[in-house]
Design goal:
33% of the residues lie in helices and 34% in strands. It has helices spanning 12-21, 23-26, 42-45, 71-85, 102-115; strands at 5-8, 35-38, 52-57, 86-98, 116-126, 131-140. Strand 5 and strand 6 form a beta hairpin. The radius of gyration is 16 Å and the shape is globular.
Amino acid sequence: GPGKVTLVDIDAEVVQAAKTHLPMICGTAFDDPRVTVVHEDVYRYLDGETRYDAIVYDLTMNPEAFIAMDREDYLEALFLKIKKALVPEGLITLQCCSAYDEKTLHFTRDILGRYFKNAELTKKMIPSFLSPWMFAKAHNT
């Protein structure tokens, strides 16, 4: 298993709600001494000096509701920060979008192709979304 896990979530209430209301999903993950929870905007957090073997990106590829800039500009800058935060050959995984969202899917393929190598996209049916959903993984270059 991993030697250390850092969960970055801007909203402490969301993390507390998960601990309180989703114990069957969270289990004892938050009690594991290898886990550090940081309540900060990941956009700022990634400017730090820490480098990671892997980053699991579980944010939306449609952040318009909480950013004050163009979606493509925001994600371009964010994925550059992710690239810099990964060790050489580090892995990024992410949930992308609905398989029917061709614009976001094209943008995701494009950004992964520019910053990472060996990008692979996989489609999985997510019953609670009532839609096939796209997931991706790629390695740092």
